[in-house]
Amino acid sequence: EEIEEGSSCPSQSLSQSKDLESQEGSAESVHSHKKKIHMSPIFLQPKTLWLQKQPKYSRKSTPRRNKLDLYAIIKFPLTAESAMKKTEDNNTLVFIVDVKANKHQLKQVVKKFHDIDVAKVNTLIRCDREKKANKTGII
């Protein structure tokens, strides 16, 4: 009798283990990947992580020199008749300046070298490719 009970137990455990395996297999199929449907004939390669280079030494031996320093921005004051009239009537200084200089740089230069609080800067590029700047301010 003991042998029969013992023999029936392993068979039951085998059948139970098979049932568990089948249940696990069905659980795996739920989490399986679906096949992606491509709607376009063009395959777009996904973007991957692109790390920046970490060079052992810099390829440039020295940094570039700033060619547009404070002394290079203003070339010379304009002394034409119309410029003199602006100076007398409108409290405005007229300079020929570097073409690459912007209005903020012009304002800083005039404040530093001429001790003037600049209210407004007007610029224009003349027909001879020079930039003319008018600065209205308190002298």
Automatic annotation (TrEMBL):
Gene3D superfamilies: 3.30.70.330. Transmembrane segments: none annotated. Residues 29-64 form the Large ribosomal subunit protein uL23 N-terminal domain. InterPro entries: Nucleotide-bd_a/b_plait_sf (IPR012677), Ribosomal_uL23-like (IPR013025), Ribosomal_uL23/eL15/eS24_sf (IPR012678), Ribosomal_uL23_N (IPR005633). GO terms for cellular component: cytosolic ribosome; ribosomal subunit. Pfam families: Ribosomal_L23, Ribosomal_L23eN. Belongs to the universal ribosomal protein uL23 family. This is 60S ribosomal protein L23a-like protein. It comes from Cricetulus griseus (Chinese hamster). The lineage of its organism: Eukaryota, Metazoa, Chordata, Craniata, Vertebrata.
